[in-house]
Amino acid sequence: MPELYEQTAAELSALLDAGEVSSKEIMSAFLSRIDSVESKVRSFNSFDREDALKQAEAADARRSQGAVKGPLDGIPVALKDVIAVKDQPLTASSKILKDFVSPYDAHVTELLKEQGAVLFGRLNLDEFAMGSSTENSGFQRTCNPWDLERIPGGSSGGSAAAISALEAPLTLGSDTGGSIRQPASLCGCVGMKPTYGLVSRYGLIAFASSLDQIGPFAKSVEDAAILLQGIVGHDRRDSTSIKMEIPDYRAALTTDKKWRLGVPKEYFGEGLDPEVRAAIDAAIKSYEAMGHEIVEVSLPTTDLAVPVYYILAPAEASSNLSRYDGIRYGHRSAEAKDAIDVYYKSRAEGFGPEVKRRIILGSYVLSSGYYDAYYLKAQKARTIIRNDFNAAFEQCDALLTPTSPTAAFKAGEKADDPLSMYLSDIFTINVNLAGLPGISVPCGFTSGGLPIGLQIIGKAFQEAEMMAIAHAYEKQHDWSKRTPAL
Ligand code: GLN
Predict the structure, then answer these.
(1) Can you say whether the dihedral through the CA atoms of 185, 45, 221, 458 is positive or negative?
(2) In this structure, which residue's CA is closest to atom 5 in ligand 1?
(3) Which one of 32, 74, 159, 392 has the minimum C-beta count within 10 Å?
(4) Could you tell me which CATH number the domain at 4-259 has?
(5) What is the pLDDT of residues 40-94, one digit of tens each?
(6) Strands 293-297 and 398-402
């Protein structure tokens, strides 16, 4: 039998149901795996060993009384350090929240607790989820498990690295412009961003509220479906949370339906690494060989993604981050002489350079005189981008694209060049601007042994179909089964 930490959540859940292992044994297996690899990978900002084992024991006690709460009961789940868990640290990997402990649970946390999941660790990210490499963390650099010199992607780099380093069977991240899909692609795991409104944002530290969504990371599409099922549902505390009938995502994976899959030609232009392109072309061929129809479509506003996003997201961030002022929340400078000085010095000391850049950018585009020229115009462009997708979806059920233009780059390579870092998200950002769901699944490796991801973009609230499409591909290949040598 493979090690417990090598197995998927679905397999672990089956072992628990068969009485072959206990939740405590599973949690212990992951904790010892963490002991052996974490000093190399550094996925976690913190974790509480005793509390994790206590939660696992409680799951075992429930099970022995026949009160199992579902497939997540007794399964370890680690969360990106922007999702609130009562009495656990909540830092957004920012010095400004270094000592902050959450006084309440996020909606997703409440749901996972109700289902008996063992919530055991806080995963590293780019400070306040701003970045594509996790190098902007205020605490530490997470390493790509496939090559420790390289970045794991971002901003949910810890969530992706923990899955591929086999430190957790399931993790949650958040995706504002690609922060789940891009690191999943670069670390060789599955990462999924739900449709805007499907998962409540209550208790998620806000970056850009009209774009943020929480979503699952896993070793397989089936596991992602299990975790997604566990976090969806209406929540009156998030006014954008949707009321709808929730399908059985896991059951929907198995189907012999034939789909019409669109390939947007604008996603295959300049800047796309040839090895990534070859892997995506091969994935498209593989769908064709399975009997699905491939159609070329056009998304003419593809190149608006980065400029529109870098007006709207910083605008929202500059407003959301005003609460970290040394008084309402966060670090308070010891040097301050008066109240105004508290604001200046606390924010100057607490925020890192990328966060400051975004706040300045956001304040600028919202200031009178520039508002119409930038913010309003970007909002209009966002509507056109959404219409583009609607038109494309008249011709197909889902879109196939690369997730990221390149495989994982070297740490430091783009750290001093924000624009080239921003371009890491050219294929993911528009999905957020249009509010659509997207998933990244492993689809190959570069000659240097780095993972490549295929992005599947679905219609709004059609996660079940999108994941079935991803699952159909995954079944034909063993990319998701490979693990890095650590
Ligand atoms: N890399 C993008 C940014 O820096 C997206 C981040 C995200 O999705 N949270 O804004």
Answers:
(1) negative
(2) 177
(3) 32
(4) 3.90.1300.10
(5) 999 999 999 999 999 999 999 999 999 999 999 999 999 999 999 999 999 999 9
(6) unpaired
Active site residue 155: yes
**CA distances in angstroms from 459 to 173, 215, 388, 462, listed in the order given:** 21, 16, 12, 5
Q: How far, in Å, are 322, 323, 342 from residue 337 at the CA level?
A: 20, 20, 7
Amino acid making up residue 71? P
CB 44 within 8 A of CB 122: yes
Contact 320, 176 (CB under 8 A): no
Residue from 316, 288, 270, 279 nearest 403 by CA: 279
Find the catalytic residue in 155, 156, 164, 200.
Answer: 155
DSSP output for 229-261: HHH-S--TTSTT----PPP-TTGGG------EE
Taking only the tens place, the pLDDT of each residue in 19-43 is 999 999 999 999 999 999 999 999 9
Query: pTM for this one?
Result: 0.98
Distance (angstroms) between ligand 1 centre and the Cα of 213 equals 12
Q: Hey, which residues does 101 pair with through a beta bridge?
A: 89
d(CA 212, CA 289) in angstroms, rounded, equals 36
The response to whether residue 177 sits with its C-beta less than 6 Å from ligand 1 reads yes
What pLDDT sits at residue 1? 79
Separation of alpha carbons 77 and 69, rounded Å:
15
Q: Where are the beta strands (DSSP E) in 70-212?
A: 76-80, 118-123, 170-175, 190-193
- Residues with Cβ within 8 Å of 43's Cβ and at least 6 positions away in sequence, in order, are 78, 123, 124, 142, 157, 158, 159, 161, 162, 165, 167
Catalytic annotation present for 22: no
